[in-house]
Amino acid sequence: MAAVGVLGGVLSLTALGGTSNAATSGNDAGNHPKPPARANQAAPQEASDARIKITPRQGAYDVGINDPVKVTVSNGNLTKVTMTAVATGTEVAGTLSADGTSWKPNGPLERATKYQVTSEATDAKGRPVTGNATITTVSPANNFIGHLSPENGSTVGVGMPVTVNFDKAISNKAAMESKIQVSSSSGQQVVGHWFNDHRLDFRPKNYWKPGSTVTATLNLHGIQKTVTFKIGRSQVSTVDAKTKQMTVVRDGKTIKTIPISSGSTEHPTYNGQMVISQKFRQVHMNGATVGLTEKDGKPSYDIQAVPHAMRLTDSGTFIHGNYWGADSIFGKVNTSHGCVGLKDVKGGGDSKQPAAWFFDHSMIGDVVIVKNSADKTTVAPDNGLSDWNMPWSEWVAGSATH
């Protein structure tokens, strides 16, 4: 990801690091309340009473270097907290309170830096829980225009749009959009679309051409900055919720068919085109974060380390490894709360498992299409990087300069 800021009237562009493969709180719901449940169903297990809270929240931008970053726990004790700079891996020194209920860094953070906070705690019965968040600190100017992705110099799949998220609402959209030009070496026409006052995406009519180079040029006050990224091979995987099979197509040829288990009748998976936006070798999934709790308030499921997880929507849809489901469900029964599950082993250490294979052969920006799901709605274009679900005529109509 990159951040764009203004420093003394001069446009500045600061790299903030790439995608982490460490565990993170990957099932936080976005601003898409319908349907609320988009996490995977776990086998019944006794959840911890401990509750971890990380301040600022997951995904926070523009965090002040002296702002109070803090990890707290209720109904338990913290056993481990680490805070690291994503780009460099440098660990931030911190102090755990004497009573074991809170942690904070010892000093100020670095500017324009993406940090990952990982925490562990146990309740009175020794039952563990984890909490994780990724935050980004302010630019040297402390005045962001917006945050641009994908990362400068990265290689991504054919479905990756250029996304600019603005910290402040943009009133003159035409003026702002005119300062951002996106082009491709393929010659494809690229058009911007405003989803709201804070988000502007750019994409061509069809997926990017494999092997092409995309250039985003930003001009402000006579200063120009450029971000470039490459498009890798084409990989489009189609999940058929009816047959419970996923077909992986690489550069027009089917390279693998994988049995899957998608959303149950009560919690069907979204239909439509989705794009892998994050990859995590392990991720904590907790039903409470997407509104799935039992009558006593405890989460419907709480899985500490879901292996080979890749995010498909902001509202919590993942395609990931499933080690708790019986082998007989894959290709036969849809059992999840909306995610797409592939056979795996606990810890994800077996590279021969279908989930491990798909993880290792996928990249950020790859397309995953779901069809024949019981959910009659198509995933919203602004839910994650699902831009491709919007017809081209409607997309162009959402530009402020066309």
UniProtKB/TrEMBL annotation:
The keyword Chloroplast does not apply. Residues 235-371 form the L,D-TPase catalytic domain. Keywords: Acyltransferase, Cell membrane, Cell shape, Cell wall biogenesis/degradation, Lipoprotein, Membrane, Palmitate, Peptidoglycan synthesis, Signal, Transferase. GO terms for biological process: cell wall organization; peptidoglycan-protein cross-linking; regulation of cell shape. It holds the Pfam family YkuD. GO terms for molecular function: acyltransferase activity; peptidoglycan L,D-transpeptidase activity. Residues 1-22 form the signal peptide. One of its GO terms (cellular component) is extracellular region. PANTHER family: L,D-TRANSPEPTIDASE (PTHR30582), L,D-TRANSPEPTIDASE YCIB-RELATED (PTHR30582:SF2). This is Lipoprotein.
